[in-house]
Amino acid sequence: MPAQSSPEIKALVVCLGNICRSPMGEAVLKDIAQKRGIEIVVDSAGTAGYHVGEEPDERTVAVCKKHNVPIDSHARQVSTSDFVRFTHILASDESNLRNLERIKPSNATAEVRLWGSYLDNKPIPDPYYGGINGFEKVYEQCVRLSNAFLDEVTRTSTQTS
Ligand code: 4NP
């Protein structure tokens, strides 16, 4: 079976506020999967609720626009049902990974990992208090991590099907 047939993958990208890193990660992962012909569901959420309902940070939107990556999301907080609805939960950094592990329900089925663990174990640094350059770096990292994640999950689904 070709690696493209992977509709079983449902990934949730998680950061703190769900306005900077994870909406960009969601947009980039969707865009790259579509370009690679991989069927996947992607969403994003924050471990904190400070920005619930807000659109992504204008710097996240500007960087996505510059790279022609469509972005359209509103911030929401992670819920316990996400641990069952998604197959993979991708934490942007260790602090968010710890928070996810803390709220993970006993019936969780999702694999909860640092997104960087699919490539180099590096966290995605929080760009909120810095300039646009930090957002550009987050974008480049999201591209690398999206490809690494898709490489691994398509390899796994091909082996097991
Ligand atoms: P994010 O960035 O977790 O990448 O969405 C942040 C957004 C907001 C805050 C911190 C980080 N905040 O403190 O409000």
Describe this structure in words.
It is a single chain. The chain has one domain: Rossmann fold, CATH 3.40.50. The chain has five helices and four strands. It has helices spanning 21-36, 58-66, 82-85, 94-103, 132-160, and strands spanning 10-15, 41-46, 88-91, 111-114. Helix 1 crosses helix 5 (132-160). The longest helix is centred in the C-terminal third of the chain and has 29 residues, at 132-160. It is globular and about 40 Å long. The model has no long low-confidence stretch (mean pLDDT 94). Residues 15-21, 50, 126, 128 line the site of 4-nitrophenyl phosphate (4NP). GO terms for molecular function: protein tyrosine phosphatase activity. One of its GO terms (cellular component) is cytoplasm. Keywords: Cytoplasm, Hydrolase, Protein phosphatase. It is found in: Cytoplasm.
Rough shape?
A: globular
CATH topology: Rossmann fold
- Would you count the extended β strands for me? 4
Series of secondary-structure elements, N-terminal to C-terminal? EHEHHEHEH
Ligands: 4-nitrophenyl phosphate
Q: With helices defined by DSSP (H or I, 4 residues minimum), what is the helix count? A: 5
Strand content: 5-15%
Supply the helix-strand structural class.
alpha/beta
Residue stretches low in confidence (pLDDT < 50, at least 5 long) are: none
Strands in their spatial order, largest beta sheet: 2-1-3-4
CATH superfamily: Response regulator
Task: Calculate Rg over CA atoms.
Answer: 15 Å
What is the terminal-to-terminal distance?
A: 7 Å
Would you identify the CATH architecture? 3-Layer(aba) Sandwich
CATH class division: Alpha Beta
Work out the count of structural domains: 1
Oligomerization status of the protein chains: single chain
**Biggest pleated sheet:** 4 strands, parallel
Helix share, percent: 40-55%
Please tell me the overall pLDDT: 94
Active site: 15 (nucleophile), 21, 126 (proton donor)
GO molecular function, one term: protein tyrosine phosphatase activity
Catalytic activity: O-phospho-L-tyrosyl-[protein] + H2O = L-tyrosyl-[protein] + phosphate
Subcellular location: Cytoplasm
